[in-house]
Amino acid sequence: MSRSPIDVSSGRAPGGDDVLLSVDNLDVTFGSGSGAVHAVRGVSYEVRRGETLGIVGESGSGKSVTSLAVMGLLPKNAQATGSVRFRDAELLGTKDKPMSAVRGKKIAMIFQDPMTSLDPVFKVGQQITETLRVHDKDLSRSAAKARAIELLEIVGIPNADSRADNYPHEFSGGMRQRVVIAIAMANNPDVIIADEPTTALDVTVQATVLEAIKAAQHETGAALVLITHDLGVIAGLADRVLVMYAGRAVEIGAVDDVFYRPRMPYSVGLLNSLPRLDVEGRERLTPIIGTPPSLQQLPPGCPFAPRCPMRIAECSLAEPALVRVDGHSAHWAACIRSGELAGKDRYQAGNVFDTTGGDSQLPAEVGAAALTDDAGGYDASPLAAAQPSQPQSPDVMRPIDPPPADPPLADPLPADPTLADPTKREESR
Q1: Which of 215, 214, 218 is nearest to 226 (CA)?
Q2: 322 pLDDT exceeds 60?
Q3: In which residue ranges of the chain is CATH 3.40.50.300 found?
Q4: pTM for this structure?
Q5: Under CATH, domain 1-106+217-277+285-353 is a member of which superfamily?
Q6: Which residues contact 77 (CB under 8 A, 6 or more apart)?
Q7: How far apart are CA 346 and CA 334, in angstroms?
Q8: Among 324, 327, 63, 294, which Cα is nearest to 196's?
Q9: What are residue 85's DSSP bridge partners?
Q10: Model confidence over 397-409: pLDDT tens digits?
């Protein structure tokens, strides 16, 4: 299947004269032949000093694989093509030993699971000092320990001087993540890649971790590539957004352009799956129906077409290229109908998504309808009229019949008279 080329300029930051990291037409494939998985397809972006680029998309869209390719951490069965450049140095294809001089020193990464990132048999202070001394052979142990304590204080670890002597299992999940952030910022890297840094953390812990990331960026002046599912995090931290779907970029632009003027139906769907705080009363969220396609066998044309409410026959002819939208040099979208979304904000554009049967009524209304519906076959979806009556939808609340009563217990066995009278026990002998 042919794929439309993607211009590297689509991912460039405005005024990109101080570009630190440049990814150009990156492709990553796992395996070969009919079982090959095309995890990343033609991704291009640039990020410059002090800038935050947010990468969003569903699980399996290629976000983490892109970052692993940048760090040179892909497994042996992966084939990567394209270009990954740090300043003027090509990183893609570089051997592990020279890449070790780049990892941690020039480009650092905050991994998703801190428990697997930290060594459970070494104290956290030792792990930070090791990171420092690997890249600075002249640094003494005492100076490295003092710097480790300072880093723990920067990321908000209380009593840092004593907590440096604790093991990872003695920290909570949020505090372990802050230790990983301290390790990432230890050598003042030029680029920090944060891969799902707030996953599986509660909201209050997320806030402290995000504050630690902002502190790390402020301390080092680094460029930040933030990979996450959480659009709220992107809205609060990112300068630009790259939306990925089925292994490729489908929309790129400034955070305000993508959030308030999205031009790709997939981006519209992601944004309208969030609850609105500016609307009184209750509203059901509108989901994107279906699941992402298999990366082993993509559908013809646009990979989002099977789930897209705006699809037409032309969508299945060829995969659309990223093109400038609204005449904006920094806003790109991969949709042949993006012009029809021009002039609409995200909420107006979201009207292209129909509510499903389970989303057309609020929970209380659904429950009330279920209690009065004696005929069965309830279905509030727009397609109900065109389909035969189906069994009761599982998301409709109906009264539950009480379980049958337990059968009465059988009469107990007669007591053994010898157990109560010792003389009878003797006679039985």
Answers
A1: 214
A2: yes
A3: 1-106+217-277+285-353
A4: 0.77
A5: P-loop containing nucleotide triphosphate hydrolases (3.40.50.300)
A6: 30, 31
A7: 17
A8: 63
A9: 22, 90
A10: 444 455 556 555 5
